[in-house]
């Protein structure tokens, strides 16, 4: 116990010297409350301008790909009735999201679901596809999304790349100008992908949930 206490004191001294009193106080606060913390995460917030592109630059290596955009529950039910294989999609969750205004983007190989993602043009829709409360300027044509998924059978064949292109062209047609999204600070691969895709780092954010109560703070990158 004594050895661990000494280590904690030395670590506190290091934080004080290197990062100052405010950071030390925050670290102590989190440490004391850690048994009560449900989740604690740091995020980076990115913004990427949407731009028109040529479809020929994004074609996948897979044949018989069809692409569908769903904006209503009725469109989903119609797709189900045609015999498309949606066994890998949570239908009830999809209905809920569509009812709240979220938009689904689906790619099929023959009749099998191969890719899905979601986008939101409103705050209400955003809550159904990404639970973190980061700010999105919907009034100025920003959009956000989430739940990107590729069927393991069709990974590394360009399908996600093509589907993302189709998704972006649809969003542009609806007036969207920028996609705002978050990435875990610990996910270096996703950060590299965001930068490679032309996204700008806009802010850092911290999320804490203590006994079910959420705390969120964003700090713009200057």
Name the strands of the widest sheet in spatial order. Answer: 2-3-4-5-6-1-7-8
Rough outline: elongated
Q: What is the helix content?
A: 25-40%
Summarize model confidence as the mean pLDDT. 88
List keywords for this structure.
elongated; 222 residues; eight-stranded mixed β-sheet; 7 helices
Explain what this protein looks like in three dimensions.
This protein has 222 residues and is an alpha+beta fold. The protein has a single domain (39-220), classed as Gcn5-related N-acetyltransferase (GNAT) (Aminopeptidase). Helix content is 36%, strand content 32%. The protein contains 7 helices and 8 strands. The chain has helices spanning 2-19, 21-33, 73-81, 91-99, 123-129, 159-173, 188-196, and strands at residues 37-49, 65-70, 103-109, 112-120, 142-150, 178-184, 200-210, 213-220. An 8-stranded mixed β-sheet has the order 2-3-4-5-6-1-7-8, with helices on both faces. Helix 1 (2-19) packs antiparallel against helix 2 (21-33). It is elongated and about 65 Å long.
């Amino acid at each position: 116990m004594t050895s661990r206490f000494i280590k904690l004191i030395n670590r506190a001294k290091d934080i004080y010297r290197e990062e100052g009193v405010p950071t030390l106080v925050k670290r102590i606060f989190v440490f004391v409350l850690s048994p009560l913390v449900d989740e604690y995460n740091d995020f980076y917030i990115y913004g990427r301008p949407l731009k028109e592109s040529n479809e020929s630059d994004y074609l996948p290596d897979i044949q018989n790909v069809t692409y569908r955009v769903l904006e209503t529950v009725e469109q989903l039910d119609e797709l189900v009735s045609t015999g498309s294989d949606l066994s890998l999609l949570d239908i009830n969750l999809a209905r809920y999201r569509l009812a709240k205004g979220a938009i689904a983007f689906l790619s099929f190989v023959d009749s099998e679901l191969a890719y899905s993602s979601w986008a939101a043009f409103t705050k209400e829709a955003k809550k159904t596809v990404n639970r973190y409360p980061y700010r999105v300027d919907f009034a100025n044509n920003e959009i956000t999304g989430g739940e990107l998924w590729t069927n393991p059978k069709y990974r590394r064949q360009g399908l996600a790349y093509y589907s993302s292109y189709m998704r972006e062209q649809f969003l542009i047609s609806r007036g969207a100008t920028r996609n705002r999204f978050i990435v875990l600070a610990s996910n270096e691969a996703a950060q590299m992908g965001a930068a490679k895709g032309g996204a700008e780092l806009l802010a850092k954010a911290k999320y804490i949930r203590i006994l079910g109560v959420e705390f969120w703070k964003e700090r713009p990158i200057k």
